[in-house]
Amino acid sequence: MNHLHAAGHICILKDAFGCESPTEIANLISTEKFDAALAIHLYKGGRLLQGSRVPFGIIFGGTDINEDIRCEEKHRVMGTVLGEASFKMLYEVTQSHGSIPSASDDLSTVKLQCRSQPCMSEGVPKSTRFAVAFTTKMKELAAAEWPDARKKIYVQTQGIKTTPSETFDWYRFLQNADIPTDVDNLHIFLLICGLRRIKDPLYLVDVFSDWHRKEPSIHLGIIGPAVDPLFTSEVKEKVKRAPGVHLLQEMSQDDLHAAMKRCFAVVNSSISEGMSAAILEAMDLDIPVLARNIPGNAAIIKHKDTGLLFSDPQEFVVLSKSLMNDPIMKREIVRKAKDYVKKHHSWECERKTYQNLVLRLQ
Predict the structure, then answer these.
(1) Rounded distance, CA 192 to CA 162, Å?
(2) Closest to 158 (Cα-Cα) out of 256, 280, 47
(3) Where are the domains of the chain?
(4) In CA terms, which of 94, 204, 252, 311 is 20 to 30 Å from 83?
(5) pTM of the full structure
(6) Cβ atoms of residues 137 and 299 within 8 Å
(7) pLDDT tens-digit readout, 27-82
(8) What is the CATH number of domain 170-344?
(9) How far apart are CA 218 and CA 208, in angstroms?
(10) Quick one: how far is CA 163 from the chain centroid?
(11) Computed over its alpha carbons, how large is the radius of gyration of the chain?
């Protein structure tokens, strides 16, 4: 949202999980006199904008293309929403640390309200729409399902800007997590994700606990919003019985970036990803990444070059140990990953793209 605020737009966030129908959103738009809307996730957010009387844009989530597309009813709804759009842009927003709301926030609709500029809805056809994709591959997958939308789909990688707090208290952080501070060679691995099944935060818990029993300096911290309350309860119960694994309290973006800088590595164990902001932020912060070998992660990580990709929990441990025992390899991975983010994930380019796209809603 920073990009849109900087252009003079007033943005109001609305969590799609708290909305039941397009009628509810239509009433909200009418009551609040919104000029336009932006939906994060074609299905979760876009379904609520069907028949919208204000122009809107769509930001695709990885779940749309990797999961929801397999469900006949969701596929139908997504096709209907895409059919209403004049311009589309496919984009997977991840973690809540980017410059616009992320998938981990699960804020699936963002209302845009222009006050400091001429009203966007005055004299504007209500059919003017747009859509955004992190990668060309994601665009091609969407275009294969909805061929008529091909020319309406644009590709914009996620822009990254990290802002670690200078006042972050690392030792208090460890104490709050019940992680001993008097252990030599402490190695903290941090898994950042919304607590929902698709992120699979329990994937490494058992193998991590076994490793911790043999090497007490090894710890895994899991941090993220409780997106799925029922699943979050499962995670809490599992972690209680898992030595060396800690469910951490949520914190501000700046503090999280500071915590990442003090960790040994950032971990991603998702079943499906569009493009993980946490991975890219770790790269920008000079922290190595170990990620599950899935298409979304492999699109931004070159194995043993800009990060490490694992296919099962056992391989995760093997790769982690190799990273711990080979400081030269670690240093090279960190350097190349930082260069990759600078080259391909410019925050400034992302800002320009979104500011230009919003103008298409006039």
Answers:
(1) 15
(2) 280
(3) 2-159+346-359, 170-344
(4) 94
(5) 0.77
(6) yes
(7) 888 888 888 888 888 888 888 888 888 888 888 888 888 888 889 999 998 888 88
(8) 3.40.50.2000
(9) 8
(10) 17
(11) 21
